[in-house]
Design brief:
- The structure is a single chain.
- It is globular and about 45 Å long.
- Strand 5 and strand 6 form a beta hairpin.
- The chain has a domain of 35 residues.
- Strands 2-3-1-4-8 form a five-stranded parallel beta sheet, with helices on both faces. Strands 6-5-7 form a three-stranded antiparallel beta sheet.
- 22% of the residues are buried.
- The termini are far apart.
- By secondary structure, the protein is an alpha/beta fold.
- Bound molecules: adenosine-5'-diphosphate.
- Adenosine-5'-diphosphate binds next to helix 2 and helix 3.
- The site of adenosine-5'-diphosphate (ADP) has 17 residues, from helix 2 and helix 3.
């Protein structure tokens, strides 16, 4: 599947992309992450991108497109990809079209994540990222609490940092830039019949479910706990240890159709003999 996630800063594109990576087994391509990595490595690209990023403006199309072209040329994208944060203006959307047309791999869906302005500002203020594994948390809505808190990269607790562009002044500019440059993509993709909009407010799992539905991906049913306890009870109800071994689940305790036929057979034969 080739997917674009469209939405304002803070709408949850990154968080939901990470979920899709796990469920669909295709890579996430986040231009924001790629640019931040270039800045951290101190490459020429990073040096050129940094000023625009720090002030909340868009990085030059030529830089971003070069980066995307290279990334989409990597073999792991052949089975599909999730574009997160790209395209971000009409020129980028047209360039993406041409790029994918050339390799005959058009987009399958563009999903717009809809979130209220006030909620976006709140989310961005609470957003923290693990400096080691890159997982996104939110101090308000999804803190790294619970049993599974250690970072898969270090085995230590996640090292949470705030993105330098998640400060008040830059956030206001990023939201303005989104309205001016990126929002027109909603109409662009709607006109092509590709847009699917979802309500991206609510807890993360709910939004993931809506996203999967919008993509037409069947959400695997989780095993109902009642089944498990029924199986346990069935084992407990049996009396002898020998029976316990046999009666593992209620399903297994039910005789199979051939067994039923075998059980009825003597009665049938007896009836036949009587006739
Ligand atoms: P957010 O969606 O929260 O604004 P991102 O991580 O997607 O954050 O992007 C961070 C910054 O990187 C943007 O504000 C912008 O400066 C730059 N950037 C990311 N993607 C693009 C893009 N496709 N085109 C231009 N600039 C980009």
């Amino acid at each position: 599947m080739r997917i674009v996630l469209l939405g304002a800063p803070g709408s949850g594109k990154g968080t939901q992309s990470q979920r899709l990576v796990e469920r669909l087994g295709i890579p996430q391509i986040s231009t924001g992450d790629l640019l931040r990595a270039a800045v951290a490595r101190g490459t020429e690209l990073g040096r050129q991108a940094k000023e625009a990023m720090d002030s909340g403006r868009l990085v030059d199309d030529s830089l971003v497109l070069g980066m995307i072209r290279e990334r989409l040329g990597e073999p792991d994208t052949r089975k599909g990809f999730i574009l997160d944060g790209f395209p971000r203006n009409l020129a980028q959307a047209h360039a993406l079209d041409h790029l994918l047309e050339a390799v005959k791999q058009p987009l399958d869906a563009v999903v717009q994540l809809e979130v209220d302005y006030g909620e976006l500002v709140k989310r961005i203020a609470g957003r923290r990222t693990c400096a080691d594994c890159g997982r996104v948390f939110n101090l308000m809505t999804s803190p790294p609490a619970g049993a599974n808190v250690s970072c898969p990269k270090t085995g230590q607790p996640h090292r949470l940092v705030q993105r330098p562009d998640d400060n008040e002044a830059t956030v206001a500019e990023r939201l303005r830039v989104y309205d001016e440059k990126t929002r027109p993509l909603v109409d662009f993709y709607r006109a092509r019949g590709m847009l699917r909009a979802i309500d991206a407010e609510g807890d993360v799992d709910t939004v993931t479910r809506r996203l999967m539905q919008a993509l037409g991906v069947r959400v695997p049913k989780t095993r109902r706990p009642v089944r498990k306890s029924a199986a346990k009870k069935a084992v407990r109800r049996t009396k002898t240890p020998a029976k316990r071994v046999r009666a593992k689940t209620p399903k297994q305790r039910r005789p199979s159709a051939p067994a039923k036929r075998r059980a009825k057979a003597p009665a049938k034969r007896a009836r036949a003999r009587r006739r």
